[in-house]
Prior knowledge:
- By secondary structure, the protein is α/β, with parallel strands linked by helices.
- It folds into 2 domains: about 1-145, 2-Layer Sandwich (Nucleotidyltransferase, domain 5); about 195-380, Nucleotidyltransferase, domain 5.
- It is built from 16 helices and 14 strands.
- The protein has helices at about 60-70, 105-115, 120-135, 155-160, 165-170, 180-195, 245-255, 260-270, 270-275, 285-290, 295-320, 330-335, 335-345, 355-360, 385-400, 405-410; strands spanning about 1-10, 15-20, 25-30, 40-45, 50-55, 85-90, 100-105, 140-145, 200-210, 210-220, 220-225, 325-330, 365, 375-380.
- Strands 5-4-3-2-1-6-8-7 form an 8-stranded mixed β-sheet, with helices on both faces. A 6-stranded mixed β-sheet has the order 11-10-9-12-14-13, sandwiched between helices.
- Helix 6 packs across helix 15, helix 10 (about 285-290) crosses helix 11 (about 295-320) and helix 11 packs across helix 13 (about 335-345).
- The protein is globular.
- Mean pLDDT is about 95; it is low at about 405-410.
- The site of adenosine-5'-diphosphate has 13 residues, from helix 10 and helix 12.
Amino acid sequence: MKVLVINCGSSTIKYQVYDAQGKVVLAKGIVARLGEKGSYLSQQTAHSDVRRELPIASHAEGFQLLVQALLDPQDGVLGDLSEIIAVGHRTVHGGDVFVESSIITDEVIRKMEELIPLAPIHNPANLLGIHEAMRIFPNVPHVAVFDTSFHQTMPRKAFLYALPYEYYEKHKIRKYGFHGTSCRYVSQEAARMLNRPIEALKMVICHLGNGVTIAAVDGGRSIDTSIGFATFSGVMMGTRSGDIDPGLTFFLNRQSGMSLEQIENLYYHESGLLGVSGVSNDMRVIVDQARAGNDRCQLALEMFAYRVKAYIGAYAAALGGLDVLVFTAGIGENAPVVREAICEGLGFLGIGLDRAKNEQALAIQSDISLAQSRVRVLVVPTNEEQMIALDTVRLAELARHATPSPSERDR
Ligand code: ADP
């Protein structure tokens, strides 16, 4: 008995197979570059590592291939498709409709379709994945785990923009936040690492990957987060600007004659680490080049750390104190130099970094604070798929108990 986790994007399908408890990964793979040149499937299990390069025209073909790979007698982990007892789907936008993960029904699909305008690229791809997976696994529960749900606990004062109120009422314009599944996972893991009840902890989560989210989590509930309505506010990211003055949009449009599409492209794809450094969106390259004396890379690094630091201060104030600072995702887990730059000068908040421990903490759970530090500073590798698998197991179990078995129905 196993659980399948699907993360379906517009040109990739990532997948993992877990054991029935949702705890152990048995296989993980990706079908990438769908409908593009150079498409491939790659899959790893404990006993195999396969990569097949072949034309893959559509998501439907991609799903067929991943099923074949999972069933492969030599390289797969399934003897039969019936071994999959539930399927979990990473789903980007749940609007203010989905406050937690949900068993997928026709009604859920209809609501997800209504939310497409809020995530025009991601939600259609997620829905495509749900439809394909439901075709292949028609008789098992499918569960949607939304990236926005965790942040639905934000109070109105935090999630509303100070626009006329009807823009919220009519157009649902508000802060939604993203990376919620990651924030939920690492906040739970952080409490577990510290052996403290999550209800008693005030945390700031720094999810620093290609996308960046800083979240304020009080007793396990998100009370504020840096990404808002779209996906580029908050801290500068790989190619996204982060917070900017909205007045810039009008200026660029009127004074420079840039179209809205060009400005959108500027904010999303040409800014952030890439835009400032002029070199790369990858923090590894920025760190290396800064060390080698590249001034613009040094500047990008300083700007990034400064912005994260400012959010930590803001959220410590919003929380009314701070017990735990968590670093996660690609940069947060792997870049001691960035963590050090962020924590520098935060002694007044009770944050004290142990430099040696910080240097050693590379993609492993670790407490990198000084023994006397009032705030525990933790590195917690994120694992969104695990969170999805655990939600899927939990909800599938609930659904099983809620639906009478055929023999019970006959009684
Ligand atoms: P995504 O948001 O795409 O899931 P990840 O969490 O995988 O992103 O983070 C990817 C980013 O992590 C890379 O762009 C890179 O900048 C950064 N990264 C990964 N390893 C390191 C490292 N050793 N040092 C600095 N940055 C790193």
